[in-house]
Amino acid sequence: MNLHLIDISLILVYFISVLFVGVYKTRADSSSNYMVMGRKLTLPAFVMTLVSTWYGGILGVSEYSTTYGISNWVIFGLPYYVFGIAFALLVAKRARSLEVNSLPEILASDYGKNAGRLASVWVLLLASPAPYILTLGLILNFFLGMNLVIAIIVGALFSLFYILNGGLTSVIKTDKLQFVLMFAGFAIILLVLGGSYMNPIELWQSLPESHTSLTGGRSLGYILVWFFIGSWTLVDPGFHQRVYSTTTQGIAKRGILWAVLFWFIFDLMTTLTGLYAFSFLPPDTVPSQAFLVLADSVLPVGLKGMFYVGILATVMSTLDSNTLVSGITLGKDIVSTYTPFKDYSVNALIKASMGVVLIIGIFTAIWIPSVIDLWYTFSSIAIPALLMPTLLSIFRKPLSSHAALLNLTIPPLVALLWFLFGKIDEWNYFWGLEPFYPGLFCSVLILLLVNNSHKETTL
């Protein structure tokens, strides 16, 4: 791909700006400042960081919306509004009142260190930077023709550099810039397409049923599992981290409701862009590259660079956030709980752990080079483990320690084995059930049988 010097300059200015904003006056000495900004996160910043960090897999959205049309909104939009609103109304104030620094802290407090460590493993899956390392690598590969493996490594290292000293403060400051850029980028391409190609109404009338159907031709079981994966919101470690960082419980609640509104707007923008890509581009276009190819085809010099900057902002805002959350989980919630590391500062352990999780993320991104597969696999395994113990603890109705440990062990193991056997059998899962369902069923069974049985024996 050959970019004009003006477009290249805009991209370089973006990288320099992110580096400057992320590093300038962001040093955090205490662990509280590093992990949760000293709980000083205000409403506007809270909304902007929640929105900007929710869309890192933008090439996955490109792939799905171009291929399956508006079902992209049904799968990657609607479930998250439902669970986001549920979090705001039922969970946000309670979670903020706990005064913790990370999600595994809640489980460690109620169920012991081993439960906290086990929960941390599943949090690491949910917060894995791998999907976003892959996405950034694919974008750099598209822009520069760089070898994909090298592009993945370069993108990952750059994102680590500017958050090392400031922690969450650096992430929030860059998120505010990236929030503006991601909306501006998609507004630009939609305005140009609406004026030069066809308006949205004409586009809708020209589309086949496959792209105007809410299911997009996918099975109801497949769509339902993605709906339940939307419960990810309730245990998303980055989501929790920002709630813990707000100045008041009220900001946590109101901010999530505002974030849902902005999610809805951005989902409309990205899904509409996918419909334009399907209509405008040749059928042999690689769906995951459709947004990039579309911009290259229709945008003039300068605006093309602005759109690509918006794409980069969408990805990098999530990559740096997940890198920090993963570093906190590994460094504070796992490593620091072992005696040999007691004398090390928490911040030092988090920084070292961020390097480790990025290395793991790089290898994972190379091994599973599909953003949607990474999302689907990680969430199907981790959510059944975390959902029940976390929510019950937040509502101060914790499981018995025995039931909690079983819930953190058996459901994810069942989901993983279900997934692996399905893969061996060319994705033919037992009884046609996606791996998420048996995992969640085991979790509910443990809640009903083991936990109730334990309570009866202790009365």
How many helices?
24
Overall pLDDT: 88
Poorly predicted sequence stretches spanning 5 or more consecutive residues: none
* SSE order: HHHHHHHHHHHHHHHHHHHHHHHH
Protein traits:
Sodium/glucose cotransporter; 459 residues; single chain
Verbal overview:
76% of the residues lie in helices and 0% in strands. It is built from 24 helices and no strands. By secondary structure, the chain is mainly α. It is globular, with a radius of gyration of 22 Å. It has helices spanning 5-23, 31-36, 43-52, 58-68, 71-76, 78-97, 103-111, 113-126, 130-144, 148-161, 168-196, 200-206, 209-212, 220-229, 232-235, 237-245, 249-280, 290-298, 303-334, 346-367, 371-394, 401-407, 410-424, 436-458. It has one domain (5-383): Sodium/glucose cotransporter, CATH 1.20.1730.10.
List the helices and strands and how they pair.
Layout: H1 5-23, H2 31-36, H3 43-52, H4 58-68, H5 71-76, H6 78-97, H7 103-111, H8 113-126, H9 130-144, H10 148-161, H11 168-196, H12 200-206, H13 209-212, H14 220-229, H15 232-235, H16 237-245, H17 249-280, H18 290-298, H19 303-334, H20 346-367, H21 371-394, H22 401-407, H23 410-424, H24 436-458
Helix pairs in contact: 1-11, 1-19, 3-11, 3-17, 4-17, 6-16, 6-17, 7-8, 7-21, 8-19, 8-21, 9-10, 9-19, 9-20, 9-21, 10-20, 11-17, 11-19, 12-17, 17-18, 19-20, 21-23, 21-24, 22-24, 23-24
What is shown here, in short?
With 459 residues, the chain is mainly α. The chain contains 24 helices and no strands.
